[in-house]
Design goal:
184 residues, 7 helices, 35% helix, globular
Length: 184
């Protein structure tokens, strides 16, 4: 798993990032692309919990777990969300510490471009999702700077693992995807 550059870490921990997600990022996904009402949710790459907070507001009755690779981010999230009924853990998305077929939905916001071998992460996400569970994604799939895939390549990867892309929005800077776990 790749660590964030200090500038990126500063930006994603700023109030601007929260406002971005509240009006354009994860909140847009939560409002317009949800295809099922999940009961057991996993957020991947949760950072300090801004997106976790928005997911909790949208699904107050759901069981919500969040995981991030960066220990310092996890510690901040635990403090920020102490009273929000969220289980927050440090871990690697390519080696998730959860049983198979455990979650109805997984959320990943700007995650995959941080994982050099994101194929392993996709397999793990597929493993922990229940059959016909959904993976909701907000990503910047451009082969610029440190991006490692295009939107088309990312969709192909999901389909090779066993996901079916059921919704796709966005063409340039932001891509929103909803993928369903299909059994072989």
């Amino acid at each position: 798993m790749a660590k964030m550059h200090s500038i990126e870490k500063f930006l994603v921990n700023s109030r601007l990032d929260y406002l971005f997600h509240k009006f354009f990022g994860i909140n847009r996904l939560l409002q317009k692309m949800i295809v099922a009402e999940p009961k057991n949710i996993l957020e991947l790459g949760s950072g300090i919990g801004y997106t976790t907070e928005l997911i909790r507001e949208r699904f107050p009755a759901a069981s919500l777990a969040a995981i991030d690779y960066d220990e310092s981010q996890v510690e901040i999230a635990k403090k920020r969300l102490a009273n929000r009924s969220v289980s927050i853990a440090q871990g690697d998305v390519a080696q998730l510490p959860f049983p198979e077929n455990n979650f109805d939905a997984c959320f990943a916001s700007f995650l995959f471009h941080h994982i050099p071998n994101y194929h392993d992460a996709l397999k793990e996400i597929y493993r922990v999702l229940k059959p016909h569970g959904y993976l909701y994604i907000v990503e910047v799939p451009l082969k610029l700077l440190n991006q490692i895939f295009s939107k088309h390549q990312l969709i192909q990867e999901f389909e090779q693992i066993g996901f079916k892309v059921v919704r796709s929005k966005g063409k340039f800077l932001l891509t929103f995807l909803v993928c369903e776990k299909i059994l072989p």
